[in-house]
UniProtKB/TrEMBL annotation:
<dbReference type="GO" id="GO:0004034">
    <property type="term" value="F:aldose 1-epimerase activity"/>
</dbReference>
<dbReference type="InterPro" id="IPR008183">
    <property type="entry name" value="Aldose_1/G6P_1-epimerase"/>
</dbReference>
<feature type="signal peptide">
    <location>
        <begin position="1"/>
        <end position="26"/>
    </location>
</feature>
<feature type="active site" description="Proton donor">
    <location>
        <position position="223"/>
    </location>
</feature>
<dbReference type="InterPro" id="IPR015443">
    <property type="entry name" value="Aldose_1-epimerase"/>
</dbReference>
<comment type="pathway">
    <text>Carbohydrate metabolism; hexose metabolism.</text>
</comment>
<dbReference type="InterPro" id="IPR014718">
    <property type="entry name" value="GH-type_carb-bd"/>
</dbReference>
<protein>
    <recommendedName>
        <fullName>Aldose 1-epimerase</fullName>
        <ecNumber>5.1.3.3</ecNumber>
    </recommendedName>
</protein>
<comment type="similarity">
    <text>Belongs to the aldose epimerase family.</text>
</comment>
<feature type="active site" description="Proton acceptor">
    <location>
        <position position="363"/>
    </location>
</feature>
<dbReference type="GO" id="GO:0006006">
    <property type="term" value="P:glucose metabolic process"/>
</dbReference>
<dbReference type="InterPro" id="IPR047215">
    <property type="entry name" value="Galactose_mutarotase-like"/>
</dbReference>
<keyword id="KW-0413">Isomerase</keyword>
<feature type="binding site">
    <location>
        <begin position="122"/>
        <end position="123"/>
    </location>
    <ligand>
        <name>beta-D-galactose</name>
    </ligand>
</feature>
<keyword id="KW-0119">Carbohydrate metabolism</keyword>
<dbReference type="InterPro" id="IPR011013">
    <property type="entry name" value="Gal_mutarotase_sf_dom"/>
</dbReference>
<keyword id="KW-0732">Signal</keyword>
Length: 399
């Protein structure tokens, strides 16, 4: 089967399976805490413990497992994916996301490892934006910018488990968090939910909802950091072959803030309109590559913009392991990050130091610094409105 036909088939399966997941969740049964799911077949959900924070707060885990060999472990701290086991072409499973073996790593050396980031994912220039004539000042945590919601964004909170369900074909967990008015400088009390669903089609769906009592800005994403070759890493995550459904990126200034213009990718290292090995591209000479510390940390404009159902955005294949994944999303942008700022100072799973290009992220979201760019897709939400987003990751093997 050709790469193009395969991607169309994968996108179709993901869209169909997402509908199946949503309908199954309505009739699936809850999983009790500290007990394995009682179903003998299908997708199971198991609640457990994942240690305690330094203040004594207990962190819970929920493990979703299907019969095809995929196991997704989630934790309440940061509403994060702690591990994601996916089989290779020989059927041997391995963890494909970087992170830490214990809660101490997530709390003491945060690096946005597979967490839910908010209230505003990505950068806001100067830590300021204006809404209805009022300027809001946010704390800075990325030199001159506010990044991923500020120094204590939603990734550094212990979310509550609202619901855990399981059924014959899917299982899910919903985390919830209430962010008070003024949290990290943002207006409005926001109630947020994120639901992770695993099904028998090897789809991991991440769905978000949020409401507010005052006008505010919201931009949520999962900061998944992947290496399809497996963790601990034996080779670079960027050695995988990538295709992105995008014809343009948002070029950035020296502070990594979008200039407001679009840049066609044709003829540049950012061109993944046809499959290409990422390592080859990030090592090419280009001013935008240099600005991002010798890699990619840019927003790709996904064809189709904001859509009511997920559309295909990314296809990533590791030919050595045979693991492949697609990402479909309702969002207009994908922030691609090639691990350019991993410098070996952080020790992850298995005691491995996390170094450059060892992980790659595709963050489905609205554009960076949107509140300061009226022409960008809006991130504003008002009372009575509900913010929603759905992103689906589909896993398969390449023979």
């Amino acid at each position: 089967m050709s790469v193009t036909k395969k991607m169309v088939l994968v996108a179709s399966l993901s869209a169909l399976s997402l509908g199946a997941m949503l309908s199954l969740n309505a009739c699936s049964k809850p999983a009790s805490k500290d007990s394995a799911a009682t179903a003998t077949a299908g997708v199971t959900a198991t609640r457990g413990d994942f240690g305690k924070l330094s203040d004594g707060t207990a962190v819970e885990s929920v493990t979703l497992k299907n019969t095809k060999g995929i196991t997704l472990k989630l934790i309440t701290y940061g509403a994060a994916m702690q591990s994601l086991m996916v089989p290779d072409k020989a059927g041997t499973p391995a963890d494909i996301i970087i992170g830490y073996d214990s809660i101490e790593g997530y709390e003491k050396t945060p690096n946005y490892t597979n967490v839910t980031v908010g209230r505003y994912a990505n950068r806001i220039a100067g830590g300021k934006f204006t809404l209805d004539g009022k300027t809001y000042t946010l704390p800075l945590n990325d030199k001159t910018n506010t990044l991923h919601g500020g120094p204590k964004g939603w990734d550094k909170h212990n979310w509550a488990i609202k619901d855990v369900t399981q059924g014959a074909d899917s299982a899910s967990v919903t985390f919830t968090l209430t962010s008070p008015d003024g949290d990290e400088g943002f207006p409005g009390t926001v109630v947020a939910e994120v639901t992770y669903t695993l099904n028998e089609n090897n789809d991991v769906a991440i769905s978000y909802k949020a409401t507010t009592d005052k006008p505010t800005v919201i931009n949520l994403t999962n900061h998944g950091l992947y290496n399809l070759g497996g963790i601990p890493a034996k080779r670079l995550a960027t050695d995988a072959e990538l295709k992105i459904e995008s014809d343009a990126i948002l070029p950035v200034d020296k502070a990594l803030i979008p200039t407001g213009k679009e840049m066609p990718v044709k003829g540049t290292p950012f061109d993944f309109t046809s499959p290409a090995v990422v390592t080859d591209r990030v090592k090419m000479s280009d001013p935008q590559i240099t600005l991002a510390n010798g890699g990619i940390d840019h927003n790709y404009i996904i064809r189709g913009g904001v859509t009511p159902t997920p559309k295909l955005a990314v296809t990533l294949e590791d030919k050595t392991s045979g693991r492949g994944m697609t990402i479909s999303t309702t969002e207009p942008g994908i922030q691609m990050y090639t691990g350019n700022f991993l410098d070996g100072k952080i020790v992850g799973k298995g005691g491995q130091s996390l170094t450059k290009y060892q992980a790659i992220a595709f963050e489905a979201q609205r554009y960076p610094d949107s509140p300061n760019h009226p022409a960008f897709p809006t991130t504003r939400i008002d009372p009575g409105q509900t913010y929603t987003q759905t992103t689906v990751q589909h896993f398969y093997t390449v023979k």
